[in-house]
Design a protein that fits this description.
Order of helices and strands: EEHHEEEHEHH
Strand order of the largest sheet: 2-1-6
Number of strands: 6
Distance between the termini: 76 Å
Length: 209
């Protein structure tokens, strides 16, 4: 599919004064959490001819073994993916004797991607610009840009992969609409229940004498 990006304006100061340029910024169109362990296991099992359960078992156990190695003060390198390293820190003390083990803590875990992974992504990554006409005033855009986006309104990029990209945008839009409809129907149902309850309630202010 490739990655969809937006175009955003950034201001910076130069010798001539304030200047503005436009840059690509990432827009992630995917469910929360991205590709899950289950989904990754399905893909790997399908391509490798392996059992999905076996692949998922390895993926689930992998973080445990990485954690185990980091706890021993070791770094972990997975060829083709990258390396994991642990960083530590402590409070500052005036005397070296005061830097005791109880004062040391983990500050963060670093991941350094493998050079081959970075190289492959830089060489083979496909990018698609989200249609500018959807969030820029039309008078700011070139006529050819507007024409191209009218012709292919769901994507901007190579047609071969843009078609799949457009389908993905459509799927996400449908999902968003369905979610909104469910929330809207639930809200209306609650409002209707409240109205019905108010109708059923007797009016104790009526004088029955």
């Amino acid at each position: 599919m490739g990655m969809i990006y937006l175009v955003r304006k950034k201001l910076f100061r130069s010798k001539e004064g304030m200047k503005q340029l436009y840059y690509a910024v990432q827009r992630t169109l995917q469910p929360r959490g991205g590709v899950t362990t289950e989904k990754l296991a399905q893909r790997m099992a399908h391509r490798k001819g392996m059992s999905e359960g076996d692949v998922q078992s390895v993926l689930v156990d992998l973080p445990k073994y990485i954690e185990e190695a980091l706890r021993e003060g070791e770094s972990v390198t997975i060829r083709g993916l990258g390396s994991f390293n642990l960083a530590i820190t402590s409070e500052g003390f005036e005397h070296p004797d005061d830097v005791m083990p109880g004062k040391v803590q983990v500050s963060r875990i670093y991941f350094k991607p493998d050079r081959s992974l970075v190289g492959r992504l830089r060489q083979n990554m496909d990018f698609f610009r989200y249609p500018l006409s959807k969030y820029f005033p039309h008078e700011m855009l070139r006529p050819e840009t507007l024409e191209r986006e009218r012709t292919y309104p769901k994507y901007a990029g190579r047609r071969s992969k843009g078609h799949r990209n457009g389908n993905r945008l459509k799927e996400l839009k449908v999902t968003h609409n369905r979610t909104f409809q469910r929330k809207h129907l639930t809200h209306n149902s609650l409002k209707a229940d409240e109205r019905n309850e108010s109708i059923k309630q007797p009016d104790y202010r009526t004088n029955h004498a």
